[in-house]
Specification:
Number of strands: 5
Radius of gyration: 21 Å
CATH architecture: 3-Layer(aba) Sandwich
Order of helices and strands: HEEHHEHEEHH
CATH topology: Cytidine Deaminase, domain 2
Number of helices: 6
Largest sheet: 5 strands, mixed
Distance between the termini: 17 Å
Shape: elongated
Length: about 200
């Protein structure tokens, strides 16, 4: 595994970053994936476990399902997958089971990464298929998206706690009329979003 990326690799990873931003917009941990075949995009995906109520709906799996349906084959030996975060064990095994030619990722995942961080399933000699692996492509940009996402969520959490504390203080202060206490506790609506990834983690 290395970070000797080509211009084509970086272009494909930027498309995966676009998908990661789509995940952010719907409140998912921003991980995106793109599947290429002969230099052309054939499928994309982004994290959807929360919106789909599906713990397996990682970006790689979503893209893989689309590609398999499009090509009418679960085996995709001429395909390459680009993903903004190091694949977990589930995704790594699915990609090898689908016979992917190559997997390229951006940021490493020191908590659940199965392409070298926690373990490297791609180097298991006893497996019946081996997929080429490339890591670190646009790693800084891929990692920054995740860091910014969780910084935003932490700030939203602080604001919710601040609002709840204001309400608690106001309701126990006899000098503040009940109506004013309610106004003190009024905050702009904040979406109910996870404060940490359920299945993916920051690099």
């Amino acid at each position: 595994m290395s970070s000797d990326s080509t211009p084509a690799d970086e272009r494909a990873m930027r498309l995966a970053l676009d998908q990661a931003h789509n995940a952010w917009l719907v409140g998912e941990v921003p991980v995106g994936a793109v599947i290429m075949r002969a230099g052309r995009v054939i499928a994309t995906g982004y994290n959807r476990p929360i919106t789909e109520h599906d713990p397996t709906a990682h970006a790689e799996i979503v893209a893989l399902r689309h590609a398999a349906q499009l090509l009418a084959n679960y085996r995709l030996p001429e395909c390459e997958l680009y993903v903004t975060l190091e694949p977990c064990a589930m995704c790594a095994m699915a990609l090898m089971h689908a016979r992917f030619k190559r997997v390229v990722f951006g940021a490493t995942d020191p908590k659940t990464g199965a392409a070298g961080s926690v373990l490297n399933l791609f180097e298991q000699a006893r497996l019946n298929h081996h997929t080429a692996l490339e890591g670190g492509v646009l790693a800084d940009e891929c990692g920054a998206v995740l860091r910014d996402f969780f910084a935003e969520r932490r700030e939203q959490y602080r604001q919710r706690r601040k609002g709840a504390l204001a309400v608690a203080v106001a309701l126990t202060d006899p000098s503040i009329p009940a109506g004013e206490a309610t106004e003190i506790g009024t905050l702009p609506h904040l979406p109910h979003l996870p404060l940490a990834p359920l299945a993916r983690s920051t690099p």
